[in-house]
Amino acid sequence: MHWRRRKTDPDARRLALALGAARVGLGVGALLFTRSTLKALLFGETDAVGTALGKLAGGRDLALGLATLASREDPATLRRLTLTAGLLDAADAVAMALNARDPNTRLPAIGGVLSGASGAAASAWAGKRLER
């Protein structure tokens, strides 16, 4: 069977790189400006544990975003990283949905579900259209 090599969809590539850049921005904010970023995400005041978890998530997003941007000339790696980021976004959406039951975290959890689900959907679309 002969497989035709597809060219990378430029819109999918742009979206994958835009998602990577957004992840870098969120990662820098969460890692270096943790309390301000958590407040912007509607978490309000946090204790030391919440701040530490925010930094942990920020480091993850920063590393994944930088790796995604670094793979801009390698379509196969860009695709894998985009799909990996989408899986992490889906997991974040599930985790945030579980927090929506708590009145103290309901509002940021709803925002987390919406952003995680939209990130997962965008990554899935881009990943499907990127060169295999």
What's the short version?
The chain has 132 residues and is mainly alpha-helical. It has one domain.
Task: Walk me through the topology.
Blueprint: H1 10-32, H2 34-40, H3 48-70, H4 75-99, H5 106-129
| Annotation, overall tally of beta strands | 0
Number of helices: 5
* Alpha-carbon Rg, integer: 16 Å
Give the CA-CA distance, first to last residue.
17 Å
Task: Tell the overall outline.
Answer: globular
Task: Please tell me the overall pLDDT.
Answer: 93
Order of helices and strands: HHHHH
Into how many domains do the coordinates divide?
1
Question: Biggest sheet: strands, sense, closure?
Answer: none
The poorly predicted ranges are none
Strand percentage: under 5%
Summing up helix and strand content along with how strands pair, one would put the structural category as mainly alpha
Query: Percent helix among the residues?
Result: over 70%
Describe it.
It is built from five helices and no strands. It has 132 residues and is mainly α. It has one domain (10-129). 77% of the residues lie in helices and 0% in strands. The two termini are 17 Å apart. It has helices at 10-32, 34-40, 48-70, 75-99, 106-129.
Relevant terms:
single chain; mainly alpha; 132 residues; globular
